Amino acid sequence: MTKPVLAVVGRPNVGKSMLVNRILGRREAVVQDLPGVTRDRVSYDATWNGREFVVVDTGGWISDAKGMAARIAEQAELAIDASDAVLFVVDATVGITDEDEAVVRVLRQSKKPVILAANKVDDQRTEAEASSMWNLGLGEPFGVSALHGRGSGDLLDAVLAVLPDAPERAEEEVGGPRRIAIVGKPNVGKSSLLNKLTGQQRSVVDNVAGTTVDPVDELVELGGELYRFIDTAGLRKRVKEASGHEYYASLRTQGAIERAEVCVVVLDASETISDQDLKILSMVEEAGKALVIAYNKWDLTDEERRRYLTREIEQDIQAFKWAPSVNISALSGRNVDKLKKAIDDALAGWETRITTGQLNSFLGRVAASHPHPVRGGKQPRILFGTEAQNCPPTFVLFTSGLLDPQYTRFVERRLREEFGFVGTPVRVEVKARE
Ligand code: GDP
């Protein structure tokens, strides 16, 4: 799921951080809203009425080089770029200031929805002062008290009304057996592997919508757990012998990968790794599925072949070295039982969720030890990041400028070192403010 992002903007001392605390319903956010307290990365995971979103608290983003109004406008601009909606906080007890006006000008230019919070409405008396905020021309001001919590429920309802919905991940059966596809080029031993896995156990035949008498998927028990093997009809039937089978086989492969959560790519260890093998591995990665590599026909390999294979893997499979692999023989059954753990590990990696807090403290450490090189006199900075989605883990980095592709790859490598992500593609997207 992609979480929508809410930016909280406003000049210092209006109570942004305290309001963020209210929204989060906890004490985690830093409460001081002091100018000069630099908090570069300030995004938090929030939930309201069962909906998840990310809150970006913009206090202290910009150094003190320029005048206050310009600084705050710039800060607001950054936040607005990175967000889906903006919560603009003003101080009802102070009234409209020049700095507030500067933010409004930026807000007007953007197309982002804005919710106006008039903070410090601690009692009835200040309510009238909140009404004066209509003069900002941003619509209804929501009178709130971040201190006491007053009005924050209504405010959050209004925020959620303008935040876009997180698109639901299309899932065939939530909570059902995990979906596995066995894929690979012809004759590597896919059918043999499926036969070995189902073994003597009665495989549960599962007709999809009764449209076919062939089992399309099979439910197979591995180590006491049920798994759904996707589109096994193509493996069971000798479709290979039909004319044009390669074309249909590749269509089926694509379809099976799309429906699966995890793919077991079967390679023939006794033969040189081919372009077709690599293409199938890439298909799995591009589809964003968890990946396990099975080197089959191990019984046919001698020491010399294994030496060559090691070299081929180093050369060609480097890009997939995050995938767990098992050396198996579908014929003898050697190591076939080890596939279950590899599959479970890959699924766990695929589903990994890193909290926004963890992620940003990691990004802070990366930036401190390996800052982005200066480009044309400027140094792009990662302002904050969020795992917008898992399955596979997908990170969005909001930056002050375009990152070198090498730097993005470096961050991806460091993410893997830090958090593992065994068996899963990892995506890093950069949203740069030009
Ligand atoms: P598929 O096209 O990928 O489904 O491959 P098959 O399962 O039909 O296997 C192709 C050929 O390889 C068959 O003759 C199998 O008996 C043989 N085969 C499959 N796995 C192994 C294995 O682990 N060792 C050996 N020696 N032969 C195997």
Keywords:
single chain; ribosome binding; 434 residues; alpha/beta; six-stranded mixed sheet; ribosome biogenesis; 13 helices; Rossmann fold; P-loop_NTPase; 3 domains; seven-stranded mixed sheet; binds guanosine-5'-diphosphate; GTP binding; 21% strand; repeat; GMP Synthetase, Chain A, domain 3
Gist?
The chain has helices at 16-24, 68-82, 98-109, 124-131, 152-162, 190-198, 233-236, 245-259, 275-287, 303-316, 339-351, 356-369, 405-419; strands at residues 5-9, 43-48, 51-57, 85-91, 114-119, 141-143, 178-183, 204-206, 217-222, 225-229, 262-268, 290-296, 325-327, 382-389, 394-399, 427-432. With 434 residues, it is an alpha/beta fold.
Structural class, by secondary structure, is: alpha/beta
The amount of helix comes to 25-40%
How do the SSEs run, as a string of H and E? EHEEHEHEHEHEHEEEHHEHEHEHHEEHE
Placed side by side, the strands forming the largest sheet appear as 8-9-10-7-11-12-13
Number of helices: 13
Beta-strand percentage? 15-25%
Function: GTPase that plays an essential role in the late steps of ribosome biogenesis.
GO molecular function: GTP binding; ribosome binding
Family: Belongs to the TRAFAC class TrmE-Era-EngA-EngB-Septin-like GTPase superfamily. EngA (Der) GTPase family.
Protein name: GTPase Der
